[in-house]
Amino acid sequence: MPADLFPGFSSHWIDLPDGRFFARAGGPEDAPPLLMLHGFPQTHACWHRIAPALARTHRVVCLDLKGYGWSAAPRGDAAHAAYSKRRMGAEAVAVMDTFGHARFAVVGHDRGGRVGYRLALDEPGRVARLALLDILPTCIQWEQMAREPGLYPHWRFLAQAAPGPEEEIGRDPVAYYDELLRGWTRDGTLDAFAPGALELYRQAWNVPERIHATCEDYRAGAGPDRAADEADRASGRRIACPTLVLVADAFVGRRGLDPVREAWHGTFAPGAGVAAVASGHFLAEENPQGTLAALEEFLGA
């Protein structure tokens, strides 16, 4: 890890039933705790442009989710439960317990946001505040894709049965993931990513176990994650804590904020604030100033 990505942060290995998990922690130990969860196909390094600033007022923990970065990447199971957001949320709680934090704020981007809102639904006493970066609820996402089959094709591809996607990606994994990153940025290039962060992403992409893990993440999205969302929507379950949804105007928000607001207000977060950030999908790296300002205001920095 290049030393300058997270100045002043310490490195931690946490042993859990599914293996060892990696996290970086920074900020005053007595400050309000904040858990930051990255998305696909990245690692905790995606927060390097905003985490040090947030650590001025919070005890910040940046976790590599299971299967990503330097955290454990166990084989998936037949039901894809190992990579369900419910299981990954429970693992995030276990990690924060090791730091002594029973209740904490969560900022999650992409897949990390899905872990975050599932955790907030399953264990409302644990999450003090929740910020979700550039996602719709999983159940809504699948409904959109059913109406528009060409929307987000990687969701269907990665959710296909093993080992099809793994073998296809494995022929040239860096090229595959690089192309996804380019396609989701505002300018269609990799210029937004710091060389040190991009190097860490590429290291993980070249590991067959991690290619499998990312596919299992999406298989869980098509199976247990979607089922959990649908059950909670049917029962009227809602996120209890204050919630902010930040939307990239050049990605999820390219059709405006109204569809995003309707998706969250109509399902799990009727009181959520919804705000646009001038960015492609990778808000914390493409527009760290705008993202940081919104998060600091929401978190009470």
TrEMBL record:
Organism: Methylobacterium crusticola
Name the record gives this protein: Fluoroacetate dehalogenase
InterPro entries: AB_hydrolase_1, AB_hydrolase_fold, Epox_hydrolase-like
Keyword Aminoacyl-tRNA synthetase: no
Matching PANTHER family: EPOXIDE HYDROLASE (PTHR43329)
Gene3D superfamilies attached to this UniProt entry: alpha/beta hydrolase
Hydrolase as UniProt keyword: yes
Record-annotated AB hydrolase-1 domain positions: 32-288
UniProt entry keywords in alphabetical sequence: Hydrolase
